[in-house]
Amino acid sequence: MSAEQLSYVLVNPYSIRKSRTGGILSRLISRTGLDLVGARMFAPSQELAEAYAAMAITEPDNARHRATQERIRDYILKNFAPDAKGRRARTLLLVFKGPDAVAKVMGAVGHIVNERTSGETIRDTYGDYMADADGRVIYFEPAVLTAPDAASAEKALKLWARYSDSDGGLLENIISYPVGAKVEKTLVLIKPDNFRFPNARPGGVMDVFSRSGLSIIGFKVHRMSVAEAEEFYGPVLAFLQEKFKEPGGKRSRLAIERELGLALDDAMEKKLGELIGPEFGRDNWEAIVEFMSGRRPSDTPKAERNLPGDRKIVAVIYEGVDAVKKIREVLGPTDPSKAPSGTIRKEFGNSIMVNAAHASDSPESAAREMPIVGIQTNNLRPLIEETYGSLN
Questions:
Q1: What is the residue range of 124's domain?
Q2: CATH number assigned to the domain comprising residue 45
Q3: What is the end-to-end Cα distance of the chain in Å, rounded?
Q4: pLDDT at position 65 over 90
Q5: Which of these is catalytic: 65, 111, 222, 358?
Q6: pLDDT digit string (tens) for 39-61?
Q7: pTM of this structure
């Protein structure tokens, strides 16, 4: 079996502006079968853009390949670097891991071919390469960028990792809005049920969120610890303990009457609910924590509570006018059976808990939740350092 590799895809600024990120992610995961192990938003500086552009020329002695590589180099300098007014573009770095990752990613991305319209690859579907009657290229948009070989992948990943703090992370003050606009940030979690096996669901969920018209300014692959999941869903515990008092009392009364033959009155049912309901609520809350992190709090030793869990999520930060409301409308209600057609939970949800995605219910909740999943924490650099050692 081939050794595992890292490879990457940069979702170009144009593809991000056109809300094609979800479709691209779907194609990459489902076609390659690789594991999405890292991701980070970038707003590249001139220095980073120039350094990455310089890596485009890998075959200087091959005239045909060199012409294409020079075109890519020029594209990077024009589209990734800040514009004349110093405004930076957004790009998303996705990192994949698995056997023959470089070749598999390249196969899904596709080569730059003139007038290819089959839709087989990402570039067939989302890219453009237009030439005039004399063969001169008049429009060129490759949709995404990736590495043609393992050495190039390593070199590029080390470069982006070196700039991952200065040029990457949660992108503040990148997008311009009208004066007085009610701009908000909101957190979305693409839940573990979307990552049970390599499939198109994570990108499909993102594709529906893109209908909100909001902008992605943060993106992170994360594995929640039990402690993080407890803190994240802490406010839900009291709600569930109160919610299960009435059904807990009814179920307890029926069980006692059936098993012991005792006739209980409504007052006793209420007392049973006060006693049993909170335990039912806690049990359901622990199931949520387990779903998100992989372990129940009551089964997790104290020394292991802060260890990353075995369930993958993707945290995405959306920004825009009335962002919280727009995302919640696209998401749909907690219960998928009650969600309107066209919402994420109607299309991708299975139950109240296994319902595809979470979204903050207010700007205040978003502000509380984002630090819990460490949206500002750079986990890209450690990944690259662990794989390759020094970034030099």
A1: 1-169+376-392
A2: 3.30.70.141
A3: 29
A4: no
A5: 358
A6: 999 999 999 999 999 999 877 66
A7: 0.93
